[in-house]
Amino acid sequence: VTRAKTILSELRKPSVPVGEPPSVWRQLRNILFASVINILLLAIPISWALHFAVPNQYTLVFLFSFIAIIPLAKLLAFATEELSMRVGETLAGLINATLGNAVELIVAILALVKCELRVVQSSLVGSILSNLLLVLGFCFFAGGTRFSEQGFAISATQLNSSLLTLSVIGVLIPAAFDMVSSQITTFDQDTEQRDILKLSHGVAVVLLIIYLSYIYFQLFSHKNLYNDENSTRPETVRYAAHDGPSRTEVAKAKARRALHIAPKRTDTEQQEPEKEEVPAEPELSLAMAIGLLVVVTILVAVTAEWLVDSIDGLASSGKISKEFIGLILLPIVGNAAEHVTAVTVSVKDKLTLSLGVAVGSSIQIALFVIPFTIILGWIIGRPITMLFDPFESIVLFLAVLTVNYVVQDGKSNWLEGMILICLYVIVALVFWFYPGTEPTGLLNCTA
């Protein structure tokens, strides 16, 4: 009990001291001018007005609702960062990844209630693809424009790769079961449908148990693995034209560490006093950050409802498929804030944190949001299963396989980022033409 209290106190302790928040007026100004994309907040009243005034104009309603959620996602990330400032680095990463998926979770729940099961499944798979390929690709590419090579914690990354592989297996097994059982003549279709539904419920429960174990592992038993200064992190190498250590200096530093030889300090360094930690200056108070989270979440929920309502009409027009909407467009909206945050910290050579945002968010979608959605559908009577579109499942497997190869050496460069980005473009191009199937239509779903 004493050890648990000590660990909890360390998790709650900020990594740096936090100063006093500004005045209320100043906090409101900070919220309003938090980002230049806040000008898109004007799309919120427009989308609401269009929904009530011209509900049959599905394209307009979808477009303005789509635009409105982007600044809301950014404000959600802004409030989350202010909240994370008050806790330790590991807990802050978990809070960022969890609340960063709030938009995806809200959209999935609303679509589930309205029996848009195909949209639910494709949007969740699309969120994983967007984080792994687009967000992570831009992190590697942006960091590669400043550094020749960037290192990140290998142990934590390998563990995350294992968790992602496990999540893909959880998606592929029901598809394999469906393929084999459909070829057995003694296995009638009704029995197959109900067995797949029961199988999905069981797999969802197991994945949630794994997720809870992962949280305990990350926050308690092995929290040092997620430290950006982890000893297994390869050295970052700058370009020759930049100021900083050269490749030769980095090699010498590695050799000194291997021989346990401390580098010689100059007289100036010996006389230099230790620097005191400068308190971080928060832009919001704790109460204002929590209040902003609540208000933005409500706005996201309402706007997302108009977005989901317009999907059927937009898809029925034949201009765009449900598959592309769910797999590509909705994840881009939900990951907008995470995208900006991850790229920003990668340029500052905090690539472990970038991976924590991008890959950690994918793990949360795979091990928490998808199983939670399955169980919620079980509770409210929506027959959503782990049987995803077979083509989506194959693409997801190939994406995870590619990411595993890219991160296995613990180093990144701009070309690896370009590879991931181009792979995402290929996926988006393919799904623009792919009509999709209805694996979720095993059982009737009525709203």
Automatic annotation (TrEMBL):
Pfam families: Na_Ca_ex. The chain crosses the membrane at residues 31-54, 60-79, 91-113, 119-142, 163-184, 196-217, 284-304, 324-345, 357-380, 386-407, 414-434. GO terms for cellular component: endomembrane system; fungal-type vacuole membrane. GO terms for biological process: intracellular calcium ion homeostasis. Keywords: Ion transport, Membrane, Transmembrane, Transmembrane helix, Transport. Residues 59-219, 289-432 form the Sodium/calcium exchanger membrane region domain. It is a multi-pass membrane protein. It is found in: Endomembrane system. One of its GO terms (molecular function) is calcium:proton antiporter activity. The keyword Transmembrane helix applies. It comes from the Eukaryota. Belongs to the Ca(2+):cation antiporter (CaCA) (TC 2.A.19) family. This is Calcium/proton exchanger.
